[in-house]
């Protein structure tokens, strides 16, 4: 009987540890804009993880993050920002335009690269 009580206690402790881990996450509303208004399609990422989302047409995204986590907000043509959550339930982020000219950036099928770093053939698509 002593062995069963010890096993039951171990299971109970593991359950409490799991509940503690889930309790540390919370939903944070992130509103992203620039000088002209809301930015739709901005990337919102939990720093150090692969967890992320994009803002809707109103520049708003909701993401699940630890109480002491950091949110990274980025968009092409703007300077990225990293903002600590620090117990807040909502964040308002204003992105500023990046000084890099967009014609100096090459869009490739799986990411971006600067023209000077690109090797291989390049085709310009006039749209």
Structure description:
The structure is a single chain. The chain is an alpha+beta fold. The protein is built from 1 helix and 10 strands; from the N terminus they run H-E-E-E-E-E-E-E-E-E-E. It has one helix spanning 2-23; strands at 25-34, 37-38, 43-46, 52-54, 60-66, 70-74, 81-84, 90-94, 105-108, 111-114. Strands 1, 2, 5 and 8 form a 4-stranded mixed beta sheet that branches. The protein has a 4-stranded antiparallel beta sheet with strand order 4-3-6-7, with no helix packed on it. Strand 9 and strand 10 form a beta hairpin. The longest helix is centred in the N-terminal third of the chain and has 22 residues, at 2-23.
Structural class by sheet pairing and helices: alpha+beta
Along the chain, the helix and strand elements come as HEEEEEEEEEE
Shape assignment:
elongated
Give me the number of helical elements.
Answer: 1
Largest sheet: 4 strands, mixed
How much is the average pLDDT? 79
First-residue to last-residue Cα separation: 77 Å
Classify the helix fraction into a percent range.
10-25%
List how many beta strands DSSP finds: 10
Low-confidence stretches: none
Percentage of β-strand residues = 35-45%
Rounded radius of gyration (Å) = 22 Å
Summarize the topology:
Blueprint (H helix, E strand, L loop, with lengths): L1 H22 L1 E10 L2 E2 L4 E4 L5 E3 L5 E7 L3 E5 L6 E4 L5 E5 L10 E4 L2 E4 L13
Q: Tags for this entry?
A:
10 strands, 38% strand, 127 residues, alpha+beta, four-stranded antiparallel β-sheet, four-stranded mixed β-sheet
């Amino acid at each position: 009987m002593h062995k069963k009580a010890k096993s039951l206690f171990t299971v109970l402790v593991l359950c409490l540890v799991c509940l503690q881990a889930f309790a540390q996450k919370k939903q944070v509303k992130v509103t992203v804009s620039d000088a002209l208004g809301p930015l739709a399609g901005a990337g919102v990422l939990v720093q150090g993880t692969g967890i992320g989302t994009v803002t809707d047409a109103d520049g708003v995204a909701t993401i699940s993050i630890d109480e002491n986590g950091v949110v990274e907000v980025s968009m092409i043509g703007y300077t990225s920002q990293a903002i600590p959550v620090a117990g807040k339930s909502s964040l308002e982020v204003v992105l500023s335009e990046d000084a890099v000219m967009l014609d100096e950036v090459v869009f490739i099928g799986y990411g971006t690269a600067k023209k000077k770093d690109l090797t291989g053939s390049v085709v310009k698509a006039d749209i």
